Known about the structure:
By secondary structure, the protein is mostly beta strands.
Amino acid sequence: xxxxxFLLAAALFLALCLPARADRVLDAFVAKASSSTMEFGxxxxxxxxxxxxxxxxxxxxxxxxxxxxxxxxxxxxxWSVDRQAREVVVEEPDAAGTAADPARILSDFExxxxxxxxxxxxxxxxxxxxxxxxxxxxxxxxxxxxxxLYFSNGQLRGMTVCLDDGSSNEIEISGLRFSDRSLDAxxxxxxxxxxxxxxxxxxx
Length: 204
C-alpha cells in the first residue's frame, strides 16, 4: 500500500544537468542549486492523477511530503514514512517513480541530463524560457525520454517530463527558495517506539 502511494506521489521534480552547450539561465540555476538547499511546493499533473506536496533538496539528499507520506533519502537509502499508520518502509533507491518525483530529479540532475536546446514557451499561462533536456543514460524503470524546464525571470516555474510510452507529467513549482541550511535526510528508525512497524526491503 505504501509502495503504491509512494509511486503515485512521486511524480514531480526533474533532473537537470551541466549543459553540453551554454544556456545562461540554466547555468545560473545549476550553480545556485549545486551549493544550496532548495525548498519548494509542487503540483503534479499526469493523465491519471493530480496531487500537491512540498520538498527539500540538497545534493543527493531530499525529503518530500505528499499524500500524508514523507519520503526521506540520504542518497543511499530511502525511507517512506506514514506517521498516521506508524509505518516505515526502508529500501534502496531505484529508478521506478523518478519521472513523477521532482526531488529525485533535482537531487542528481548534474550527472543525469544534457542540454538539447532552449527556446520560449508558455507554461501555465506564463511566457517562459524553456530548456529542453535529454537523459545522458536512461536508467531502467525511469521511463523518461526527455524533460523541459520552464524559467520565468530566472526562477524555475515547473517542468514537463515526457515518457517512453508517449505520455507526460507536468510538475508546477511554487515558492522555490534557496538557503545555506544543511539537510539531514537520514531517517533514524532506532528512535521510534515499539508501536511502529518498520519493513526493511533492502536486498529484495
